[in-house]
Automatic annotation (TrEMBL):
It comes from Chunga burmeisteri. Its main location: membrane. It comes from the Eukaryota. GO terms for biological process: endoplasmic reticulum tubular network organization; membrane organization. It is found in: Membrane. PANTHER family: TRANSMEMBRANE PROTEIN 33. The chain crosses the membrane at residues 12-33, 80-106, 150-174. It holds the Pfam family TMEM33_Pom33. It is a multi-pass membrane protein. This is TMM33 protein. GO terms for cellular component: endoplasmic reticulum; membrane. InterPro entries: PER33/POM33_regulator, TMEM33/Pom33. Belongs to the PER33/POM33 family.
Length: 232
């Protein structure tokens, strides 16, 4: 009754569980490397479906207008719909599957707890314990996801020069990264950029750091700071 009363949430729960399943079989290629590539695509497609459903839930009345597009781009679900479209037809990159896997796992765990509560307050204590441990580490998981989002930017450039990526991919991914940086719901991307800058500046200001390395890092920090979008 609980599942039928929340059909859209249940559909997203199933698609997230399927995303976790496909992502796990890509990261751990138990069925062979050839099958792993197909599971990579399935995971991203399932994530695209989940993101589209979530976006529909947030903005139910679609309008073909600039204002609606601007509003949609503020939603995290729209960001990860774009993310799935960027990588679904690209060369499989393990780093790119971790945000999809971990976000799906976190959201699926939250809804699984609701399903267990609807069934019985004491049902499946072992599973409940696992879900509580996952929830306790949520902040660390979100930071790890943000770290993946950031380091995928140079990875897309490397893929371009190695012949495994397209010319447009780094530019489209840069747009995705600016959306994540400006996210209203998830500040972890901004936080990680700040923390990485502090760490790098601390290291290069040590007397043992070569001058040319210090200048290169300061120039890179200045360039990246100019590319960062303005956050209200």
């Amino acid at each position: 009754q609980f599942l039928m009363a929340n059909k859209l949430d249940t559909a997203m729960w199933i698609s997230r569980l399927f995303t976790v399943y496909c992502s796990a079989l890509f990261v751990l290629p138990l069925l062979g490397l050839h099958e792993a590539a197909s599971f990579y695509q399935r995971a991203l497609l399932a994530n695209a479906v989940t993101s589209a459903l979530r976006l529909h839930q947030r903005l139910p009345h679609f309008q073909l207008s600039r204002a609606f597009l601007a509003q949609a781009l503020l939603e995290d679900s729209c960001h990860y719909l774009l993310y799935s479209l960027i990588f679904v037809n690209s060369y499989p990159v393990t780093m790119s599957i971790f945000p999809v896997l971990l976000f799906s796992l976190l959201h699926a765990a939250t809804y699984t707890k609701k399903v267990l509560d609807a069934r019985s307050s004491n049902s499946l204590p072992f599973l409940r314990n696992l879900l509580e441990k996952l929830n306790a580490n949520q902040q660390n998981i979100l930071k790890f996801i943000a770290c993946n989002e950031i380091f995928l930017m140079p990875a897309t450039v490397f893929m371009l020069f190695s012949g495994q990526g397209s010319l447009l991919q780094p530019f489209i991914y840069y747009r995705f990264l600016t959306l994540r940086y400006s996210s209203r719901r998830n500040p972890y991307c901004r936080t990680l950029f700040t923390e990485l800058r502090i760490v790098v500046e601390h290291l290069i200001m040590k007397p043992s750091c070569p001058v040319f390395v210090r200048r290169l890092c300061l120039s890179s920090i200045s360039f990246i700071s100019r590319l960062a979008p303005t956050v209200a």
